[in-house]
Write a structure and sequence with these properties.
Layout: E1 5-9, H1 17-25, E2 30-36, E3 41-46, H2 49-59, E4 63-64, E5 67-68, E6 70-73
Antiparallel strand pairs: 1-3, 1-6, 2-3, 4-5
Length: 92
């Protein structure tokens, strides 16, 4: 892993930032938690890369409030101009 930010998916809609922070804090120091409301996923930033790796290994695939979590390294957001595709004629 290159960073200390984790993607956490398949969360129940009742999970909030405090619940997720409490869970992840048992595996290391949590810097930031951001759940995307109504989407069932969020991000947790750990204090170091080593803690992020350890936490990912411990929590990925674990049950949390009745759902099996997906924990993985967070990927950087896509650039607006990186939409894939191609072809067609460009504007002149």
């Amino acid at each position: 892993m290159q960073g200390n930010k984790l993607y956490v998916g398949n969360l129940g809609y009742s999970v909030n930032n405090e619940k997720l922070k409490e869970l992840f804090s048992s595996h290391g120091q949590v810097v930031n938690v951001n759940i995307i409301e109504g989407k069932g996923f969020g991000f947790v930033e750990m204090s170091s890369n080593e803690e992020a790796v350890k936490t990912k290994e411990s929590l990925d695939g674990q049950d949390f409030e009745g759902r099996v979590m997906k924990v993985d390294e967070a990927k950087p957001p896509r650039q607006d101009n990186d939409r894939g595709g191609g072809g067609g004629r460009g504007r002149f």
